[in-house]
Amino acid sequence: MNYNVDEKGYYGVFGGAYIPEMLYPNVAELKEQYLKISEAPDFQKEFKDLLKAYVGRPTPLYFAQRLSERYQTKIYLKREDLCHTGAHKVNNTIGQILLAKRLGKNRIIAETGAGQHGVATATVCALMGIECIVYMGELDIKRQAPNVARMKMLGAEVRPAQSGSKTLKDATNEAIRDWINNPVDTHYIIGSVVGPHPYPDMVARFQSVISEETKVQLMEVEGRDYPDHVIACVGGGSNAAGLYYHYLNDSRVNIIAVEAAGKGIDSGASAATSALGKEGIIHGSKTLLMQTPDGQITEPYSISAGLDYPGVGPMHAHLFRSKRAEFISVPDQEAMDWGLTLSQMEGIIPAIETAHAFAVLDLRSFGPEEVLVFNCSGRGDKDLNTYIDYFKL
Amino acid sequence: MNRIDQKFQEGKKLLSIYFSAGHPNLEDTVPVLKELQKAGVDLIEIGLPFSDPLADGPTIQQSSTQALRNGMTTEKLFSQLENIREEIHIPLILMGYFNPMMQYGIERFCSRCAQIGIDGLIIPDLPVDVYQEEYKSLFDQYGLYNMFLITPQTSEERIRFIDRVSKGFIYMVSSASVTGAKNTFGSEQTDYFKRIAALQLKTPTLVGFGISNAKTFTAATEHSFGAIIGSAFIKFLEEKGVGEIDSFIKSIR
Ligand SMILES: Cc1ncc(COP(=O)(O)O)c(C=O)c1O
Predict the structure, then answer these.
(1) How far away is chain A from the Cα of B75, in angstroms, using its nearest Cα?
(2) Does B165 reach chain A within 8 Å, measured CB to CB?
(3) If residue A367 lies in a helix (H) or strand (E), which one and from where to where?
(4) Which tens digit of pLDDT belongs to each residue from A1-31?
(5) How far is CA A265 from the centre of its chain?
(6) Where residue A39 sits, what CATH number does that domain have?
(7) Can you spell out the DSSP letters for B175-221?
(8) Is A263:A308 a contact under the CB 8 Å cutoff?
(9) Domain tally for chain B?
(10) pLDDT in tens, A300-335
(11) Domain region containing A169
């Protein structure tokens, strides 16, 4: 089976471009150009140079000694939290801003939930001197004040999304509407492996630097370039796609995806799309999404704003449906506890999204010679207020 | 013959009205249809509400949200329309996003539409290519037309393709924008209307998006077969109520 996108833009039955005609020229242009542009040597050089000098790549592959001892297995962390701006999101925004420039666009729009992708977009726009507008749900603007301030400092305009439930999915709707209204000069930088083809593949490719580096780094320390398990949290699924990318078709590697169960899968307040979602269409992509029996998209919940999305990218829907990946979901409480555990055992304060992934260690047992690579997708600075409230720090 | 084709043979400038089913009140759907027919409207587009209408501006978004709050569902709409053909004789088109139709089951959806006497569908997020490949035969089987959109950005090559596969009419989006009322059209729009008219398409065109009054209606229909009013009608309905529909229609033409 093929786990990469096919020539029609599908992963198995998932994906495609279910977009209004108004967006057809933009998406068709992207589809035609994204590989031509991003595989050209001058693009690759500029991309790699920026990832190195500006983002700080390669990020370390860190052997977590104390954690490995406790769980009697070999645990490595891919340190995306050490990227400039504090998460993996910037790998994608660097790639897309270079693409936007080559497409001759002079106005950038983006959606953001927690604000991480918004900050990463505002950052690359500042770097390139391009106008930047970030749509953010009105509720999220209130919940994520420090990231709103960051975006403003970086010169971006933050526009509140006031429609629907006023969170990430509505911010995405607003960004799409903006693109419909500004079809010529604007590029839309989507923040995860979601949206119409070619976005899921394009974002996955920009994030694939994560597993590209992992292969080289593992070879050095383990004498083989693949681990037994790759483990990542999945909101839309971009950090996971990056870590899985070069292992998708390598059957020696077990893939584990961790979703946010929120207050519990059956609580009515969850973001565990693989457990609760059905096939449908969200933001231009056929994928699994949480919805009512009548096909209205429902509002997800997770304590981590970055996992609070009612769908998953089509690649992940396919990995789930084909059983290539194992999907588990982890409730708020366990994720928060893991935030504390990782801080106190390894001296790494993770983003709450990231913390979800580590709960796998309590749910599965691994042999002493097995090699696990966790994607440490982001750092916890942005979540300090949530940690403070939760642990009464 | 499909009622839509019949309508286009009348040779006058057609007025089509869009409204969200179940808005302002859940049970307004049928009264609105009756008043529109009485007022002399030529076609009606019944909006099936969706939680995430990404091609729509604030007015239709809000009416859609309100309709859902009122309890509108796909099944509810079909039951409201069950006997509609006893009273409504003009073409009826359902307009909605694809996800609720998928959940209802596309074949079941088409079959209910045919049974009720719906003439066609407009599904903004179902691209013409996917329709052709996966759903066309089903729609044909149930005698349903599926209408497609074109915009000022659509290339001539694609317009020609859409024209070849279209039945009923082509929905000409007036400008690069989501739905919403405008007060005037500029020369850019007029040029676009003329450019499309000059293509001499086999399928007639109706202009939609941004039409709100007699002035925009006249401008839009000068080079097309008619025009569609949505947001301006919905606003009116919210403010004045079902009883005043006639005065709105009379103010347009
Ligand atoms: C640190 C971190 N990890 C993970 C995510 C989830 O996104 P994705 O699933 O696309 O990696 C986010 C999103 O904001 C994030 O900030």
Answers:
(1) 8
(2) no
(3) none
(4) 889 999 999 999 999 999 999 999 999 999 9
(5) 21
(6) 3.40.50.1100
(7) SSS-S---S---HHHHHHHHHHHHT--SS-EEEESS--SHHHHHHHH
(8) no
(9) 1
(10) 999 998 999 999 999 999 999 999 999 999 999 999
(11) 11-50+89-203
Inside any domain, residue A2: no
Chosen domain end from A148, A180, A203: A203
Looking up tokens 């307004």 gives B28
Enclosing H/E stretch for A360: helix A360-363
* CA A334 to centroid of ligand 1, rounded, Å: 18
pLDDT bracket for residue B1 (50, 70, 90) = confident
Are B125 and A281 in contact (CB < 8 Å)? yes
Query: Ligand 1, atom 10: nearest CA belongs to which residue?
Result: A238
Residues of B in contact with A164 (CB under 8 A): 51-52, 61, 65
How many other C-beta atoms can be found within 10 angstroms of the C-beta atom of residue A246?
20
In-domain check, residue A1: no
Q: Indicate the residue of A22, A278, A297 with minimum beta-carbon distance to B51.
A: A297
Catalytic residue among B28, B35, B45, B119: B45
Cβ within 8 Å, pair A20-B54: yes
Say if residue A128 is in the same domain as residue A21. yes
Predicted TM-score (pTM) above 0.90: yes
ipTM of the modeled complex: 0.96
Three-state DSSP class for residue B147: strand
| Contact across the interface for A17 and B127, Cβ inside 8 Å | yes
Amino acid (one-letter) located at B13: K
Q: How far is the CA of A259 from the centre of ligand 1 (A)?
A: 11
**Which residue in A has a C-alpha nearest to residue B175's C-alpha?**
A181
Q: How many domains does chain A have?
A: 2
Closest residue of B to A294, CA-based? B100
Residues of A serving a catalytic function are 89, 111, 377
Measured distance CA(A168)–CA(A128) in Å, rounded = 26
The CA-atom distances, in angstroms, between A26 and each of A22, A163, B85 are: 8, 24, 41
Residues A261 and A360 in one domain: yes
pLDDT of residue A286: 98
Cβ atoms of B104 and B52 closer than 8 Å? no
Same domain (yes/no): A304, A158: no
Residue from B96, B22, B103 nearest B55 by CA: B96
Least Cα separation, residue B192 to chain A (angstroms): 15
Rounded Cα–Cα distance for residues A358 and A360 (Å): 5
Locate A192 and state its tokens.
Answer: 């995860």
Cα of B5 to nearest chain A Cα, Å: 23
Closest among B51, B103, B80 to A294, alpha carbons compared? B103
| Pocket-forming residues, ligand 1, beta carbon under 6 Å | A 87, 113-114, 116-117, 192, 233-240, 306-307, 351, 353-354, 377-378
Can you tell me which atom of ligand 1 is nearest the CA of A354? 3
Instruction: Decide: A231 and A375 in contact? Cβ < 8 Å.
Output: yes
